[in-house]
Amino acid sequence: MWGITLPSTLDMLGHKMIPASASSMNKMGICPSQFDAQYVGRHVPKIPFAPNEATAKGEKFHAIIETAAKNRTHVTDNDLTCEIINSHLDLCYAMPMVMIEKDFGWNDETQSREWRGRKLGVRADLFAKNGELGVYIDWKTGKVKTQTLQAELTAYILFQNYPDLTQITSRFIYVEHSQMVDYVFTRDTQYVESLFALVNQEWMQYPSETLTIKLDLLLAEYWDHQKVKEFPAVKNGLCKQWCQVTTCKHHGGRE
Ligand code: SF4
């Protein structure tokens, strides 16, 4: 099984570390200052969540699909490409165990799967399990792109939560484009395959070691920034339009 480095509980408690999720790690990777503003608020005022057009659309679509999944029905909304959604809902309805909008946590020190006190966490839009096989589904709005970090972090947490799982597929379904991106993780053989189904019809294989080392490095960086309380502003493509840290010198592309 892959091994990744997690900080000690002392670090977590002493510094009130923010647990790692794909979105918090992504944010830290792009600009630590923006992470600080969104999650911590030590150096810049903490920014309350404010929905924009994209997040409002995402929430609406998630609510529609969640309601259908909970009622074991199908989606009929005109703005969604329903066929790909409904075929996956059917796939999950046929599995013996299905969880909808479920939070999974992991703390390697306490071996706890509880959300409270977690070091790593993921919210699954849908997770279905049939014996040794698990499928994690994330409904995505917006452009089709790779989701390696989220896929691997999720698989790692789910393998910890369910010791009997031998294979996990992390599947990202782009509900407006009728496309999906799959990552298949195997516990024992330790390799990862990514299928860009309906995107370019190509299988891509990565040694899991490579991805694990990458994840390990990203996590180390994530914890280090928090331990030393350093959240530098890193100019990037979001500065011009999307960042809410209006006090930053890079905001709006000023510098
Ligand atoms: S404006 Fe750019 S550099 Fe400044 S906090 Fe936002 S994302 Fe980071």
Task: Tell me about this structure.
The protein is an alpha+beta fold. It has a single domain, classed as Alpha-Beta Complex (Lambda Exonuclease, Chain A). Helix content is about 35%, strand content about 20%. Strands 1-2-3-4-5-6-7 form a seven-stranded mixed sheet, with helices on both faces. Helix 2 crosses helix 3. The N and C termini lie far apart (about 45 Å). The site of iron/sulfur cluster has 14 residues, from helix 3.
- End-to-end separation: 45 Å
Rg (C-alpha, Å): 19 Å
Helix percentage range: 25-40%
User: The biggest beta sheet, please?
Assistant: 7 strands, mixed
SSE run: HHHHHEEEHEEEEH
Q: Which class of secondary structure composition applies to the elements?
A: alpha+beta
Mean of all residue-level pLDDT scores = 83
Structure summary, number of beta strands: 7
Beta content:
15-25%
The overall number of domains is 1
In CATH terms, what is the fold-level topology? Lambda Exonuclease, Chain A
Bound molecules: iron/sulfur cluster
Q: Helix count?
A: 7
What is the global morphology?
globular
Q: CATH class, anyone?
A: Alpha Beta
